[in-house]
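Data availability (excerpt). All sequences and predicted token strings are deposited with the supplementary files. A representative entry, Glycosyl transferase, is shown inline so that the format can be inspected without opening the archive.
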Amino acid sequence: MREVGAVVVHHRHFPDVLDTVGDILESGVLPEHLVLVDNSEDAGLASDLRRLLPSAVRLVTVPNRGYGAAVNTGTRLLMDLGLRYALVATHEVRFADGALDRLSRTLVERPRAAAVGPILRQGALDGPLWSAGGGFTRILGLPRHYRQSLGGAHVVARDWLDGAAVMYRLDAYGAGMSEAFFMYVEELEFHVRLRAGGWEVLSVPGAVASQTTNGTPAYYQARNLQMFYSRWAGWLRRTFSVPALIVRNVLSNLLRGNGIGPVRDAIRGWREARSTGSDWSAL
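Structure token line:
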């Protein structure tokens, strides 16, 4: 594990984040190779983190510019240390024994692999399967998690991996994640970009982790998917995919008796992204 570093992205999930840090250190990552990027914008919380983290762990407090910005900050610090691989984990993830070792060995054995991820279970390591990597629906290209058992497969190629837990080859990281998204889709777009550059993105069934998820705000879901399609999709998906998703959400809200506030947020996000096209700097 001496060539493996880790970035933990933390936003107001104290003290549970200490369990994530503990799992990573117990897996063999050296404390001086672990960076906790805290974008909580809370001086008291940062003080608590500094007090309870192992002294060699690097705590970096940054303004909240989103997940991608935090990941980029941490991985660049690991690059400066000359490390080859970087685990990226969000603040609630727990790792099963041997998970990080299996991920790093996959990167060693597959020299064209740029990103590898564990099987993610929901809520606990023995919880229901949340993600075995991701792909896109056939016509509209909507992102979806694969949620079927992979059996005894060693590795499986995927279009993208859930950003809660991914290990990267730093030689392939390049410019890293786009920071225009703020939250949701940035890892998806990054993984598609890696694959377009000839790299592999792999799910590793022998590695298991767990996460919790609170869903995605409707505004960011619609805005960011439209941003993604503006660069990575043809006319059909650029035009119809997000509106179809919004209509589906309208019907779902009506059936459940929910309000239409999230739908309004989604329409606002979609319109903003449509107005700028592929020029993400305007957002």
